[in-house]
Amino acid sequence: MQDFTLSYDTFEPGAETLREALTSTGNGYFCTRGAAEWEDAGLLHYPGTYAHGGFNRETTIMGGRPVLNEDLVNLPNWLPLKLRIEGEDAVRLDNVEILSYRHSYDIHLALVQRELRFRDRAGRETSLRSRRFVSMAHSHQAGIEWTLTPENWSGRVEVVSALDGRVTNHMVARYRELEGRHLNPVSPRTFGPETIALKVQTRQSNIYIAEAARTRVFRGDDPVEVERSLYQMEDYIQQVLAFDVERGRPVRVEKLVALFTSHDNAINETLGAAGRHVQRYPDFAEALAEHESAWTELWDVCDIELPHEPRAQLLLRLHVAHVLQVCSRHTARHDAGVPARGLNGEAYRGHVFWDELYVYPFLNFRLPEITRGLLMYRYRRLEEAREAARQAGYHGAMFPWQSGSDGTEETQIVHLNPLSGQWDPDLSHNQRHVNAAIFYNVWEYYKATDDLEFLRDYGAELMLEIARFWASIAHVNPERDRYEIHGVMGPDEFHERHPGADEGGLRNNAYTNVMVAWIADTAPRVLDLLPASRRAALRAKLGLGDEELRTWRAMSRKMFVPFHGDDVISQFEGYGDLEELDWERYRAAHANIQRLDRILKAEGDDPDRYQLAKQADAVMLFFLFSSDELREIFERLGYAHDPGLARRTIDYYDRRTSHGSTLSLVTHAGVLAGIDPESSWERFMVALESDVGDVQGGTTKEGIHMGVMSGTLDLLQRGYLGASVRDGVLHFEPRLVDRLDGLALSMQFRGTSIRVSIKGDELTALARVEGFRAPVRIAVGGQVRELGAGDGWVFALPPLPATATS
Ligand code: BGC
């Protein structure tokens, strides 16, 4: 990786699918993997295209049992461009001699490029440079440019340009027994001599998708006369462009593409729209220039400069680009959530989990309109969440663990263990904590933006209904005189039930219970923030009586939190009594023990028996709340909160966590920032490397991890710069100041843009004139300043506390 570039200088067939995921290009509306244009889907290549909200449900009959799954559908492949020289077979990397090869991703431009020189069987040497982007300027637009130079020959070539609707979802090996056909053909079409188009429809959800491609050839600025021939089937259309090339004279093939779906705004019919739009598109260079301007604007607010840590610098930028490729302003204009694995692959079927908790902090302080749009994904599914709560015998709204098209529960009921080949029951839908995350996300968005209108019109209703759900799932244990929650799981998916229990779920997951205590305290405050008329109307609409408010108040004081041993928070009640695992034995026997659940189950054992964790669970509390906030929550609950609680609890679980989810790396790096900064930084680097290095050994090719990518950006902002909002003031408490030397980034706080930088032991905050909305209050080391337009403040950072340097 060099400046702003992720590049691979040799072709390695086995690494191609990973590279495709990492060099995907997208614009927050749709995203396409970085597959070579000339390759069809197979074991080594997988040219997938995915658009937000493009879901379809299919049933697979498994042993006579119908199993329903919803997938984010792989859309028709718009990439195909194939080169035939003198009527021979199309060039592929395995039928020519590769003289040089470079596959790169320009992070600044979100542009994927392949440059290759090859010698074919007839000894002809040819160079080909391919450049491709999905436009950040125009959400439906994408473009490919090929520059073709015959180096030692002249002759006739044919370029095949196609749109291929014969695609299925079959990327993820574990899902291959499940139905992967999601598209029905509708029709191919042409629009004049240069444009081919194809329309398909999802089989069950009836979404139309159309693509149109206009392919032209140029030498310099001049169009080249080409002979065109057409071939079409109901689910495939291609045009072959035949033309002469001369030794040493480059020609350019340009394929501009439009993609529309029937879920779009301002749409009549997708095929007509795609055909009309593509004909209006400019040539590749102009389209790329517009795309570049759009990215330049984004980098202006999103770049993070960290000049003295070059590796971290590059990976942070790579993560910024990927986060924006999946969640951009275009996303906010659509009905889209945050798919856990981006739009870069098929893992988790494009579903939306709780991972947005890790994604929003970066967006909240830069492009909050995107968070707002994504939160609306939840609001639009509130009715479904109410129904889910009602069906389960609760009140309020119970959002699903995995969400897709309409907000019903999409978690599968069986899950394939690739180690044993067994389909095990999947109880992970009991992760009701996703509801706490949604509540927390709305609140954090509000704190960063002061967007009271959002709270008034949407956010408060979401929060109140969630609070109400928690009040109904909780019950009082009279013996303890405390509220308890049974039958749920925390984020640690290795524990699905108490050992030997018939029922799924656990008693008193500490993370859930503490979040609920905080929610119960915060929900009434949300109500108080609303204008009186809105408050009254909302209470009337929801039928929210005083009695319920009294219950919330009681819950904020009486939720039960389990502890064990030496005053460590128990992940759930009874965790401390579980058996200890012989970690050394498993480490010695397996190269990778991140997925200990699969290993244990394949051995006929049961992870529920042991003190282990897939990922941060109780530890999440120290990640989401500052020590002051947690102390308040615990004191309100009547539990002692000594300064050592965090360290004891983190140490305890650190030794028992396999980090089977990369989210866990982010969380542990975050909680250690204030306790053991160097260890935190080590983990931060592991999290940064986790997708480029595919640390889980095979998961990244199935889609990037949105949570870890944006989580690393948040780590820098919240963990190391120490940015947090309290009482309308943006506080900075930098840690690891040596490493942050030279750090510069922009943030938006309550609508005002500020530039924050660290040089030596000084922190500078400057309220930019451009984008200034109102004075904002900033605090460093306990001193608070108000910054007006153009005001700067240089603050000498206090010496680091002893714990931070020891
Ligand atoms: C993690 C979840 C996460 C999901 C999607 C799972 O492996 O355990 O916490 O939400 O992946 O990223």
Automatic annotation (TrEMBL):
Query: Any stretches that span the bilayer, and where are they?
Result: none
Show the GO MF annotations.
hydrolase activity
* UniProt keyword annotations, A-Z: Glycosidase, Glycosyltransferase, Hydrolase, Transferase
The UniProt entry, under InterPro entries, shows: 6-hairpin_glycosidase_sf (IPR008928), 6hp_glycosidase-like_sf (IPR012341), Gal_mutarotase_sf_dom (IPR011013), GH65_N (IPR037018), Glyco_hydro_65_C (IPR005194), Glyco_hydro_65_M (IPR005195), Glyco_hydro_65_N (IPR005196), Malt_Pase/Glycosyl_Hdrlase (IPR017045)
What sequence ranges are listed for the domain Glycoside hydrolase family 65 C-terminal? 725-784
Identify the residues that the record assigns to the Glycoside hydrolase family 65 N-terminal domain, covering every copy. Answer: 8-263
Q: Where is the Glycoside hydrolase family 65 central catalytic domain?
A: 317-713
> Which SUPFAM superfamilies does this chain map to?
Galactose mutarotase-like, Six-hairpin glycosidases
Q: Which family does it belong to?
A: Belongs to the glycosyl hydrolase 65 family.
**Listed PANTHER family:** GLYCOSYL HYDROLASE-RELATED, PROTEIN-GLUCOSYLGALACTOSYLHYDROXYLYSINE GLUCOSIDASE
Q: What is this protein called?
A: Glycoside hydrolase family 65 protein
Q: Tell me which species this is from.
A: Pseudonocardia acidicola
